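Entry:
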Amino acid sequence: MPFVKIFKRGEQDMEITSIIRTNCRLPALAMGDFRAQIASIRTGERRLTQLIQRYGVETFKESVRLIFDQSEKLARAAVQKIPDGVYEAESYMDDDGVNLGKHIPIKVRVVVKNDEMTVDLSGVSPQVAGPYNSGATAGRSASEVAFKFLTTPLLLPINEGSFRPLKVVLPPGRVVSATKPAPVRTWMTVPMTVSDTIFKALATARTDSLLAGHHADLAAPRVFGLDPKTGRASHFPPMLSGGGWGALSDADGQNATFCINDGDTHNTPVEAGEGRAPIFVSYRRLRQDSGGPGRFRGGLGVAQEVRLLAPGNVLSAIERALCAPWGLHGGHAALANRFSVVRQDGAVERFATGKTPSHVGLQAGDGFLVEVGGGGGYWDPFERDAERVLDDVRAGYVSLEAARRDYGVVIRQQGRRYEIDLSATTELRKQT
């Protein structure tokens, strides 16, 4: 559909609304989302009008100008702390779902000069045949998200002034600046890795205020079928369970958290998912050892197994199953995303990437397993305090084997008690 007005002079066009509703697989859900969007716009309009009525138009405009100028001042001061230079990094997406196994290269170039930063995305892959493209707005936003994190992550809300020191070079026809008729169904996926790669590039310039790689995908397969209770089509909506965020230079990464492009999305309660579709969640738990080892450990992802109570099919478009979330400054990579189909008899079908070639048929009792990746570690893991490693083992975040292998900490288990073998740990850490 072209861009058209649904409301004209305050009146809703019911014909256009009917066309949209008819073309939705689950119109009741879609129209609920539609009404929420309209309500949010009206709320914003009402509150803005109240401000202007109270203070006047000129006072309002002057306040906005001052807020923008102050945001710009702080952003420029932050950029000036980064050494001038040209910084480059690259990563990749697994593939576009059509040309299986052919990676999508993500190359970024960051130029810092005085109090200005240029992010050059000319080296990002051309638009692809599969539905992983996005328009230029998403490409620019990926750069802005990284820039805001690097400059004023907590000080101010997002506004125009925050980005005045930033220039984005983004030629048309790239996977994050696609032109028609490129498919854009999963448009939000690639820009997340672009943001991650910008952090990676600047790791050569600084050691603080950076984020190691994160799981970078919604990790939300879709299930379709018939609900035996109603006889109607059932669409099991994404039950987001979260993944690991990368560690910082002075803190562990967060566990079971939404990905970077979905700051307003929260983990879906198991009960809510089971109440909306004929499914049963066998388990949802943190994925042990999924966080990248480091002096500061990456966050853990979540493993969630779902079983169907009626026949259906599942479609997965999960990315970053091959390009694992990387560590920074000696930190190790995390486990990547993974998708599997689980049959009633216990057989497990793992896919080369997180994508199914097409819909996979499931019988009642069959299901699927989503294992969300973790976040990369920061600094050498052998520098992590042994007591913190012990705490991770006690919490189930890190296994005994990984404590020894990745952190050089030997922990003895006696029943439910865990204790550090100090002499063995000292000797092991000396050897590496």
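Residues 212-384 form one domain.
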